[in-house]
User: Fold these one by one.
Assistant:
Number 1:
Amino acid sequence: MIMDAINNLVEYFGSEARQLRNVNLFRKALYVYILFTVVQQIPLMQQLYGPQSLIVPYTYDSISAESLLNLLSQPGIAPYYYLFFIVQALCCGLGLFHIFPRLCALLVWYCTINLSNRVYLSNTGGDLLVNILLFYLIFISPQQKKNTGQYDPIINTFDNTFILACKLQVVLVYAVSAIYKYTQPEWLNGSALYYILNMNEFTLPLVKQEVVHFPFLSSICTWIVMVYQSLFPILIFIKGAKRNLIICGILVHVGIAVVMGLFNFSLVMICCYLLFRDIDLSSEI
């Protein structure tokens, strides 16, 4: 039985990845999202990245792996932050049309993580997730292979390993979030969203007014979020439940975007659902 399990694993990871279509659609969605964030940050670039930035940069006394991912914290490089945006946007555009896709994937990740690390105080969970997923995408083939070759088993292993890593990373986001909520009495008794939506930073005036008058609605929404995050890691791998689960997820994240103003985070999570799209095997042949 052990040998059969090992053989099945070898066959799974060594066979041609059938989910490249999903991943490459997700890659394009992520590139479009990054282009959107570039435009979104244009009015705030000076305040976030300029010499008078509101965020104090890290300091590094020697060259290290960490410092290479925080180039914009170096005084001699910091004034040229706009070059990182230019390269990031250019590579996203080229990547959308499969022009130098491998190089573009690497440069998009490298520019994105340096820009993200420079404004570490403003990062959300969505930003951190994007950084991780962009790194995984570097190792996944940009398109289905047209010819066979001697390196196919190695390429297939990288593709299947990092496709699985992308999926597990998204599942982990929901699982960890659900576990955390079960340790918090405010989530268990249904009052968490009531308190969150009474904060001006995480709600709209109209929503805040309705929450005060109808607190039971916030309790229902609190439990819905908990149940969804708890079920996602299991049901997303069950074909019969996947479609309805994703539809519910889209509705949940649209609600989060509209009610709490976490638009970017919700957009990232909705993009991630493309990784779990059902595959039409006939279209992969």
Number 2:
Amino acid sequence: MVDRSAPPERPRSSFARVSPRRVVKATLYTVAVLAFCLLAAAPFLIMGITTFQTDRDLYRRDANPFDYAEAPTLEHLDNLFNDTNYLAFVRNSAVVGAVVVVITLALSLPAAYSLARLTGRWGERAGILMFIVYLVPPTLLFIPLFRIIVSLGLSNSLLSLIVVYPTITVPFSAWLLMGFFKSIPPETEEAALVDGYHPYGAFLRVALPLARPGIISVIVFSFTLTLHEFIYALVFIQRSEWRTLSVGVPSELILGDVFFWQPLLASALIVAVPVALVYNVFLDRLIQGFTGGAVKG
């Protein structure tokens, strides 16, 4: 029988069940993560601090890069925004990136879906051929492409980049999206057809939502490629007001052996922060998009 007069046993504290070994492992893990985060954020931190440093403070050999020996200044930001075409570079890059993303999706989505549903070996061979086109280095193509751009009368305009960049983004994007469309069972689309949807409706309402991680990966890949691409932007456009960030910033802030470090780092930081935030927001979808599409494709 149970002795009801005895006091009930108190439950043990959760801290008493935690072993010292687990505490040490958790502490080491936290320290390692914090050290990695600090290491990854150090370039952004240095760029932000250097942006407001004076020239004398920057070139002092005994100066601490994480501190100000002199009062911070806004002179270099004023130089960046008022003495260069930086805002025009940002606008041009945004316009080119947005249009290229739209063109890439409009061409790669139906191409990838068609190749994924193409039976036999022809669909796989065509996908591999499209990916091989992406592997051709731009250094072999910019001369013939430049002659085509000149013959079309598109030199010194953003249209030259809008026409050329999809030749890089579409093959890779189509190959990437093929993996997602192959992973979608055809029975789901057949069920949509039985329910009365048109084939285009089944594609839009069934296939596209299931391939959303791949679509996000294509958007980020295409837009970031237009931001950092250099060779075509340098060759096709010579006028400063129509240049993109990758060419306009170094052409105006690097004069011979003179580097205007504070405006250079400020221009990079202003663009890098929004891109980094977008990557962090869609990080899971990006990993799923690139790994899933590559493996299943």
